[in-house]
Write a structure and sequence with these properties.
The protein is an alpha+beta fold and 255 residues long. Helix content is 23%, strand content 33%. The protein has one domain (20-252): Deoxyribonuclease I, Chain A. Strands 2, 3, 4, 5, 6, 14 and 15 form a seven-stranded mixed beta sheet that branches. A hairpin with a 3-residue loop joins strand 8 and strand 9 (128-136). This is Endonuclease/exonuclease/phosphatase domain-containing protein.
Length: 255
């Protein structure tokens, strides 16, 4: 499903007269920056995000330097995560005022990859506070379901008027972990589809396994893969990484 007629109408980031904040949120699995980093940068910059929820950030040798380089190239700053969160990373624009951050490592299942969450509480303007979590759930179905519950608990623990969780769910919307997340939060694509739907097609049929979720009260204006956004090209999307990004425009009103 594609809605190219809406591609040019994605709302820009702004602060409205009543103090509401319209923000752009991007979720992107960058495959440890193993592909064309310049193509990746061009895609991120074209999306003009306020928050970037990264999965598979570099984990090992000089991982902080790699994260800082990516942020700098995109005119963003590192918010939290990376190697200390087992891969999830948060970047933000200078529009976001940072209240606190925390990197969370999840219980390790022998034989499986370590997983974690990058979390933060940020403020836009003076009256809009939002908790954010970048996540990359397990390839194992049982562990993935448990991690979905941990993600929702982490969102609740941030104790903010609004929350956004985004990342690589590693299953489609009909899976139990994805359904659990969508039962407690708004699935951006399901609420306000825009652009493209499917985020991964390198193995098997194209499917949607990456998502932006928003707590009740957040107004989802548009959400989807920015296939036709000005400045984004198909060659760059294909060269940047093996996933496609998910871009959402959200409105958060003063609480």
């Amino acid at each position: 499903m594609e809605l190219p007629s809406l591609s040019a109408s994605l709302p820009k980031s702004l602060t409205e007269p009543d103090g509401s904040a319209v923000i752009r949120v991007l979720s992107y699995n960058v495959r440890s920056l193993r592909d064309d980093e310049e193509a990746l940068v061009r895609v991120i910059r074209a999306c003009e995000p306020d928050l970037v929820f990264v999965q598979e950030a570099p984990l090992f040798f000089r991982w902080r330097k790699h994260a800082a380089r990516l942020a700098s190239k995109c005119d963003l700053v590192v918010l939290s995560g990376g190697g200390s969160a087992a891969g999830p990373l948060l970047l933000c624009s200078l529009r976001a005022f940072v209240e606190r951050t925390e990197d969370v490592l999840l219980p390790l299942t022998p034989g499986l990859h370590r997983r974690g969450f990058a979390t933060a509480v940020v403020r836009f303007g003076t009256a809009v506070r939002v908790g954010v979590v970048s996540a990359h759930l397990s390839l194992d179905a049982g562990e993935r379901a448990a991690q979905a519950e941990m993600l929702l608990e982490r969102v609740r623990s941030l104790d903010t008027p609004y929350a956004i969780a985004a990342g690589d769910v590693n299953e489609t919307p009909d899976g139990p972990a994805f359904r659990r997340l969508a039962s407690a939060m708004q699935d951006g694509w399901a609420v306000a589809p825009w652009g493209g739907e499917h985020t991964f097609s390198r193995s098997g049929a194209a499917r949607r396994i990456d998502a932006v979720f928003a707590s009740p009260g957040v107004e989802v204006l548009a959400c989807g893969v920015p296939l036709h956004l000005p400045g984004i090209t198909q060659p760059d999307l294909e060269a940047a990484t093996d996933h496609l990004p998910v871009l959402a425009a959200l409105r958060l009103r003063p609480s």
